[in-house]
Amino acid sequence: MIDTGQASLRRYTSRVLGPWSPIVVSNRAPFEPGPRGTMRRGSGGLVSALLTVAEATCATWVACARTPAERERAAAGMAVTVPMPRSPIQVHYANPSPDAYRRYYSVIANPLLWFLQHYLWGLTDEPLIDDAIWAAWEEGYVRVNRLMAEKIVEIGRRAPRPPLVLTQDYQLYLAPAEVRRLLPEATLQQFIHIPWPTPNYWKVLPRPMRDAILEGLLANDVVGFQSSLDVRNFLMSCEELLNLRVDHRERAVLYGGRVVWTRAYPISIDVPAMERLACSPAVEQEVAALRQQRPEYLIVRVDRTDPSKNIVRGFLAYELLLRRHPELHGRVQFYAFLQPSRQDITAYREYLQDIRRTAARVNARFGQRGWVPVRLELAENLRRAVAAYREFDVLLVNPIYDGMNLVAKEATMVNRRDGVLVLSENAGVYEELGNWSITINPFDIGDTADALYEGLTMPASRRRERLESIRQWVRANDIGRWLSLQIRDLRDLLPPPIRPDD
């Protein structure tokens, strides 16, 4: 078994990736310029894991310049050197124009690809692939991916060893093909953090778009996904949409005379870091404030206000629970702690309005003096979110479809009330934690209402047993293991890297 402690992970990463010069690639940089030359680190376990790779191997990082400060540095050809405990990390920026970035991110990546990959298009009226979408594709998505590829190649050509390009997610589907063309000696790996839908649903996109996406991904040597279902859907997409030879048993595609490997790497969390945060004085203060307001039972959800999170149906299920079980009136509260998401996109703004309206209607119908049935809070406050994790009796995670939904892992690791997880069968985390959760169909509000009631009334011994099983799994499969498995496959599946002039 791979030891996933941070020190051991650094040693393992450095040893296994020794023949390569890694280049980590993502839409956003791991640090953002702050006031007076300071750098603010991004949050989340993914940033921590990838920074471990970068620090252990002296990797460089390539990202899009998104802010004025980043564009200023990019225009001057400046990399940002970020001090780290072991060795500094250099962040390089591709520099698209603000309009190109807007088209790339806010028209194609979000919402077109995001909606498609989460099965959010109803298809009766949308999407409408018109001249504006095609212009955003060519002048935004294609252009930004090309700029990112050119920056990767520029860095790769200066690298002391053959480059290993570790590309993250759906914003950068096209970049690997350009890197492969310009830097054929590079080893390419890409991880997709969101679901991969069935081949038929990909036909929502015109053939030139979907073919370019598939061929861009197939320029990689290894493509990673969150679940075995995503791997299977991708292989079927290659088979049915591009008529390629696929080996489902080996999870491999033959493309352009190369074998492209596909694997499932379910992403996870930094368990010690989450546990330390949950015990911090700041979180203790938030817990004390929450306990002053909570009734006997607390149903919690912590999410972005993304349509894929299915927040409104969760409120409707809770409303049905209150209608069916009047004995719970005054004894239960649904605490929805939500972070507003992508409010520059109309569909997201309208969904947030729907969330507000639904919560207000439930409160107007059932609320009493001293009891607010739905506590809706819109903010970004990690300490308060972790306080809610500690205090839930039932955690509702009911996405329509999701890549992983790490809330299910974070919250169960630090909960202090033997809380029960109510989990959508379409969440990426269901493949790992479904055996110890109450499973729901996310579209069935009656099913969800029954699951909430079952969670609230489950015997203490069963609650404790389920929660402990989840914790054991997450500890054994943490963010370090997620990263280690990918590094192991790069070593085991691919031939040793060589330079063309070696």
Structure description:
With 502 residues, this protein is an alpha/beta fold. The protein has 2 domains: 6-268 and 480-493, Rossmann fold (3-Layer(aba) Sandwich); 271-475, Glycogen Phosphorylase B (Rossmann fold, 3-Layer(aba) Sandwich). It has helices at residues 6-16, 45-57, 68-75, 98-117, 131-158, 175-182, 199-202, 207-217, 228-241, 271-278, 281-293, 311-324, 346-366, 382-391, 407-414, 430-433, 445-457, 460-476, 479-493, and strands spanning 21-25, 31-33, 39-41, 60-64, 80-82, 89-94, 163-168, 187-191, 222-225, 245-247, 252-255, 258-264, 297-304, 332-339, 374-378, 394-397, 420-424, 438-440. Strands 5-6-4-1-7-8-9-12-11-10 form a 10-stranded mixed β-sheet, with helices on both faces. Strands 15-14-13-16-17-18 form a 6-stranded parallel β-sheet, sandwiched between helices. Strands 2-3 form a two-stranded antiparallel ribbon. Strand 5 (80-82) and strand 6 (89-94) form a beta hairpin. The protein is globular, with a radius of gyration of 23 Å. The mean pLDDT is 92.
